[in-house]
Amino acid sequence: MAETMGKSEEEMAKAMLASGLIGVFIATRWTFAAEVGGCQAEGGSAAAMAAGALVTMAGGTLPQAIAASSLAFQSMLGLICDPIANRVEAPCLGKNVLAASNAVSCANMALADFDPLIPFDQVVDAAKNVARMMPREHRCTSLGGLAITPASLALEQRLSERKLKSCATGCGSCS
Length: 175
Ligand code: SF4
Hints:
- It is a single chain.
- This protein is about 65% helix and about 0% strand.
- It starts with 8 loop residues before the first helix and ends in a 6-residue tail after the last helix.
- The chain contains 7 helices and no strands.
- It has one domain (about 10-150).
- The chain binds iron/sulfur cluster.
- Iron/sulfur cluster (SF4) binds near residues 34 and 81.
């Protein structure tokens, strides 16, 4: 977006700083780890950080940037972590695309002075509470959600057989 909007390196750096500060608020109150909080801790945090950065880059105010972060995080509460075939590739790619579009939409809403109603720190606390009630099967263990669908299990099996075959060749690529 910075390149499309023709922003300077300094403006990009300021946006990254805003994003980092939102991240500090999350990290000091809670976590980024999906093993603790599910995908809401990864994708939700990323969306919140990106939304704050985008508002900053678009020349929004500090309250608007924090409102964007709150809105973006709110939309991702409860998102589970269920990597298909026990690999961090799918549905991760789609979830990250979702987080990015969410960030853009929420940045635009905040710039239009949409009221997030819940302050950002309370949204982080809410995500933390949701995580406490989330079963371990939905927190990056590959024991729930899409990870245990027949298609996912079959894919995992296929991939592990392929790995065994490559081990037999002695190529050393999996060591
Ligand atoms: S589902 Fe994928 S992107 Fe989301 S937390 Fe799990 S591993 Fe990360």
